[in-house]
Structures are given as C-alpha cells and as structure tokens.
Amino acid sequence: MKKLIPVLFALWLQGCAQKPVSFEPVSVAEVLPYLQNEDTELFKSKMLQNCHRILQKEKFDDRGLFGRSDQWQQLCSKAQSLDDIPTFINNHFNVLKVQSKDSLFTGYYAPFFEGSRTKTAEYSHPLLAKPTDIYTLNLTDLGLEGKQPSKFMVRVDSKSKTIQRYYTRKDIHNAAAEPLVWLKSKVDAFFVSIQGSAFIKLPDGDVFHVAYAGNNGHAYRAIGRDLIQQGYIAKDKLTMATIYEFFDKNPDKVDEFLNKNKRYIFFAEGDGQVRGSLNVPLHANRSLAVDPKYIPLGVPVFLKTNLNYNQQSFKSWMFAEDTGAAIKGGLRGDIYFGQGFQAGQFAGAQNASGSMYVFVPK
Prior knowledge:
Helix content is 21%, strand content 30%. By secondary structure, the chain is of the alpha+beta class. Helix 1 (40-55) runs antiparallel to helix 2.
C-alpha cells in the first residue's frame, strides 16, 4: 500500500538526514512487565495473520537479524496454541532494542470527510482512481543494475513517442484517470492523500471507503516544512487544524503550497477495512508504520513513547504493518490511532521521542 502517512511529521522535517541505526540485544525482562493482562486473542490473531504474510516472502531478512523464514514457520505453528503473551514471548523470542541518535513517533488515522459520487457545485474536487496510462519502468529490467532510484512511474508521450515521468500533482488533471469521489476542497483531498485512506460521508447518508491504490512516483515533500520556513506557521503550532486555518485565510496560497508536493496518491473503493502496506487490517494502537529498510514488515515490536494529546505514557506491543513516504529511519514510527474525529485528535497531536524493541525468533 502507500502507506498511510502521518498527520504531523509528514507535514514538516521530511528532509532531515537519516541517522545510523543499530540493534542491541537486551533482556526480555525489559518488556515482559508491560505484556501482562493484555489482549491475548488480539495478539494471537495478529501474530497468525502477519505470520502468513512473512511466510509468503521468499527471503524474509537477508541480514539475518530478524530470523529466517523457517524459524518464523515454527513460530507460526506454535502461535496456534498461544494462550499467554508473556510466556510466548519469553519462550520463543529474543529482544533487540533499536538504537539511533534520534527518535520520533507520530500518528495517523482514517478520517471522515463529506463528499459525493457525482460532481456538484458543493463537491468539485476529485480523488482520482489509478490512471490507465501509468506504467512502471524498472531500470533493472533494462540491464541497468545499481542505479538509484531503480523504479519510475512513467507515461508514453503520444506526440514525441518518448517515455516521460508521470504527471506531477500540478499537472495531474492530464492523467487518464476517472474521479472516484468528489470532495469539498483541494485541502480535503490533500489530507486524504496524506492519510492514504478515508471514509466519505455521501449526501444520502451512505459511507464510501476509499483506499490507497498507488502513486505517481514523485518524491514526497512536506509542505508543513515550507510553511514553517516561510514564517506562516510556527514549528510548535503546526497541526492539521492550523494548516486548514492558514489556507482558509489565504486561499490564493493553496495551489502554491500543495503543488510543492509533487507526489499524488490514487485511490480505489475499499472494503471498509483500513489496511497497510502488509495488506492486513490495521488496529488502533496496535499497528505501526515503520521504515522497512530497517524493520521488516510483519514482526512484533514493543513501543515506549508518550501521547501528546492526553499527556499519557504509551507502552504497548504492536506489529510493523505499514510504511510511509515520511517514515524514514530505524527509530521512526507512525502509530495508527483508528478512525474518525477522536483518532484524528490523537494523530494530529502526536510528535514524541521514544524507544522501540523488535521481537526476533530465538
């Protein structure tokens, strides 16, 4: 999938350099006390669900840090009879603490927006389905090994008969793409793309679920960073609400800033379940978006951080089930907070340091 992208961090600081990352073996005792009296059935369900995805990979982890496929095969079998989380973790896992100079844990959610399946005076800004004229160009298929990036999203220009990068956000109206649903504003549509999934309340009362279907291949740019650098919003005041407020007061700035982010997200009708890059249903406070360069998708992790919205500590087992254009670095995560307004309050405020532990087979 996309990834569902974070509300706050995705809006600023995307350009920061990544820091060196290491994994330190630690005693399982560091996390076991926090695994008592937890939802065993949910953990078991997600463990089995993610096991299935891990075992579909021909090579799970080339580095050898996170276990081989055959080790996960054994764990998946043992998870069938899992009846106590601490005992299962203690008997079958080692624990690696992720070490990096910087850490950041933000949040994301599935928002609700008002919209229409047909264009009207009130609803005139589309979410587009995946175009029929977009193609994937893999340089490795052309024998160009070692080139970075190795993959591009392209189109064929009919006049020049050349292959060109696919349209940017500014020119996306030229895409051979059908509108999937119409929203009230460009800013609404932009924030749906930031989250990667949303529920659209239609005029007849029905709810239409849109899910990530692809992107135009251009790099993500954090427009919040631009707003901060140009002095429009203070860094410590940056939230989804303050960005809406700025654009409401400065409608002439909407295109200028939105188009700085050339990346565009395409959507498809969803099945009502919010899914991440691992293509499993996400669970509030139990699903984490990570950088797969460092943390393989599917593995259980333990996260310690603080929730900015209610100033409470957060110590919870989770599963690495999603990725995101703004999630870069080993000690970088994005907590899925669920659906709707309350989840948005938590996600919009979340911006804290923390610690992350990865469970790996013994």
